[in-house]
Design brief:
There is one protein chain. With 169 residues, the chain is of the alpha+beta class. It has one domain: Gcn5-related N-acetyltransferase (GNAT) (Aminopeptidase, 3-Layer(aba) Sandwich). The chain is built from five helices and seven strands. A seven-stranded mixed beta sheet has the order 1-2-3-4-5-7-6, with helices on one face. Strand 4, helix 4 (94-106) and strand 5 (112-118) form a beta-alpha-beta unit. The longest helix is centred in the middle third of the chain and has 13 residues, at 94-106. It starts with 6 loop residues before the first strand and ends in a 14-residue tail after the last strand.
């Protein structure tokens, strides 16, 4: 694990170059490979904007280590719709640091963090469970036929201490 700190940079969308580079890496690895996400589609998605979506780049020494996309508000919480640690940064504590950052960022605003993990992605599911996420539902055939997605939740504060959320338009 590197001793150099991670920096988290909030973005509405990635630049075309960043999106192409990251998409090419993701498209060649799971879960995106098994789910059939191609590099072009991923790159387009990384450049789209939405008022409820923020992307955070995890950067160390100027190099992107990971990317997370968070949709907020979502079901009394924040929904992590994309979570990716680049292969060159895996096993270095980046994923744990990203989740800690998200928990600090959204605590005080909401009570829950949500995410989906592919049923076949046992390593990712074990990682999320180790970080305090618990499975709450199974969505069959959501992305492609024959593959389930597991909805997971982490309670980050009680409802009595969470600020009320304003519904988005």
């Amino acid at each position: 694990m590197s001793s150099d700190p991670l920096e988290f940079i909030a973005r509405d969308a990635l630049s075309a170059g960043e999106a192409r580079t990251i998409a090419a890496i993701l498209a060649g690895s799971d879960p995106w490979l098994t789910l059939g996400y191609g590099a072009d589609a991923l790159a387009r998605g990384l450049q789209l904007t939405h008022p409820d979506l923020t992307r955070y780049l995890a950067v160390r020494n100027g190099a992107i280590q990971g990317l997370v996309g968070v949709r907020y508000p979502w079901l009394r919480g924040a929904y992590i719709e994309l979570f990716a640690v680049l292969p060159s940064a895996q096993g270095q504590g980046v994923g744990r640091a990203v989740l800690t950052f998200l928990e600090r960022t959204y605590r005080g605003r909401t009570a829950n963090l949500w995410l989906l993990v592919s049923g076949f992605n046992a390593g990712a599911r074990a990682f999320y469970e180790k970080q305090g996420f618990r499975p709450v539902g199974l969505l069959t055939d959501l992305v492609i036929a024959g593959q389930d997605e597991v909805l997971m939740r982490k309670v980050i504060q009680t409802h009595s201490t969470a600020a009320p959320q304003t519904p988005s338009a």
